[in-house]
């Protein structure tokens, strides 16, 4: 049975586009929704151009009420009956209330080789540490920030003279390879980690 995938974004949606465009042919999943917490996020128009239903739940209307925001998210997502949720540049930290509702169904992509550099500013932190490589990870979402089981990683060598922006651009290229590969496997019921280099 084809799995239904909801993709959550906050910005331009480049990872959403690679995921949506990969779900064709014999792929075991299809996109059913693209949701953003930012009205006018660039990824919404890209989803609409692909015929994917879209929704917006603006977090700014829930000042200090994270639970109210997450209940509104659930109300927007659940009518589409997703089997899988993909966080693709969704820039909100989710609470156990939301995570428990979709436990075992939610994936996230993070721009570091987890467990290194959870949270923000991953590329700058890798450079400051003198690392020789960076990369990205796809993991299941659990209540621990960027701490769920790792389902795939792609490695990128750090070059002399790299800046956070240069490194981020090369890592993003690998994100666009890794996330669709992991989603395809996950949708088929296979949680064996994917490793790209």
Automatic annotation (TrEMBL):
Domain named Formyl transferase N-terminal is located at 3-183
Q: Which residues take part in binding N(1)-(5-phospho-beta-D-ribosyl)glycinamide?
A: 13-15
Where along the chain is (6R)-10-formyltetrahydrofolate bound?
A: 66, 91-94, 108
Q: Where is this site: Raises pKa of active site His?
A: 146
A single Gene Ontology CC term: cytosol
Say yes or no: keyword Cytoplasm present: no
What Pfam families does the annotation carry? Formyl_trans_N
Q: Transmembrane ranges?
A: none
The pathway where this protein functions is: Purine metabolism; IMP biosynthesis via de novo pathway; N(2)-formyl-N(1)-(5-phospho-D-ribosyl)glycinamide from N(1)-(5-phospho-D-ribosyl)glycinamide (10-formyl THF route): step 1/1
Specify whether Transferase is a keyword of the entry.
yes
The biological processes this protein is annotated with in GO are:
'de novo' IMP biosynthetic process
Keywords on record: Purine biosynthesis, Transferase
Give the main EC class.
Answer: transferase
Query: Single GO molecular-function term?
Result: phosphoribosylglycinamide formyltransferase activity
InterPro entries in alphabetical order: Formyl_transf_N, Formyl_transf_N_sf, GART, GART_AS
The catalytic activity, as recorded, is: N(1)-(5-phospho-beta-D-ribosyl)glycinamide + (6R)-10-formyltetrahydrofolate = N(2)-formyl-N(1)-(5-phospho-beta-D-ribosyl)glycinamide + (6S)-5,6,7,8-tetrahydrofolate + H(+)
Per the record, the coiled-coil ranges are none
Documented EC number(s): 2.1.2.2
Q: Which domain of life is it from?
A: Bacteria
Catalytic positions are 110
- Family per record: Belongs to the GART family.
Its job: Catalyzes the transfer of a formyl group from 10-formyltetrahydrofolate to 5-phospho-ribosyl-glycinamide (GAR), producing 5-phospho-ribosyl-N-formylglycinamide (FGAR) and tetrahydrofolate.
Task: Provide the protein name.
Answer: Phosphoribosylglycinamide formyltransferase
Q: Which organism is it from?
A: Salibaculum griseiflavum
What is the phylogenetic placement of the source species in the record? Answer: Bacteria, Pseudomonadati, Pseudomonadota, Alphaproteobacteria, Rhodobacterales
């Amino acid at each position: 049975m084809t799995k239904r995938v909801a993709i959550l974004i906050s910005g331009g949606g480049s990872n959403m586009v690679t995921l949506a465009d990969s779900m064709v042919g014999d792929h075991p999943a299809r996109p059913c929704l693209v949701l953003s917490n930012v009205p006018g996020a660039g990824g919404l128009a890209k989803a609409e151009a692909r015929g994917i239903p879209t929704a917006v739940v603006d977090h700014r209307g829930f000042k200090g009420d994270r639970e109210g925001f997450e209940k509104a998210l659930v109300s927007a997502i659940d009518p589409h009956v997703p089997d899988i949720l993909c966080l693709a540049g969704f820039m909100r930290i989710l609470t156990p209330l939301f995570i428990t509702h979709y436990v075992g169904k939610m994936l996230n992509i993070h721009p570091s080789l987890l467990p290194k550099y959870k949270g923000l500013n991953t590329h700058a932190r890798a450079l400051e540490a003198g690392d020789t490589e960076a990369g990205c990870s796809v993991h299941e979402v659990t209540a621990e920030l960027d701490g769920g089981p790792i389902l795939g990683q792609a490695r990128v060598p750090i070059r002399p003279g790299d800046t956070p922006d240069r490194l981020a651009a090369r890592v993003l290229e690998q994100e666009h390879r890794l996330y669709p590969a992991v989603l395809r496997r996950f949708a088929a019921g296979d949680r064996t980690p994917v490793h790209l280099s």
